[in-house]
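Q: Could you fold this chain for me?
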Amino acid sequence: MLDNKRAYQTKGTWDLKGDFMSGSFINYAILDRKKKTFLVIEGFCYAPSTDKRDLMFELESIIKSVKFLK
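A: Sure. Below is the predicted structure, expressed as structure tokens.
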């Protein structure tokens, strides 16, 4: 639940085909029943030489702070 709305979370890794880039991602699909739509918010991390754990926690905190306007 995000902002009292049903939300679906996915986490994983992304990979760029034909190149050596990859990293972690997190996304949320938030159901807005009043408008009958989904709001999809995504966060991607590319930091090849650092630990991504703290960066992913920061992205998740930013995404979870979403508020819907009336």
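A (continued): The mean pLDDT is 92.
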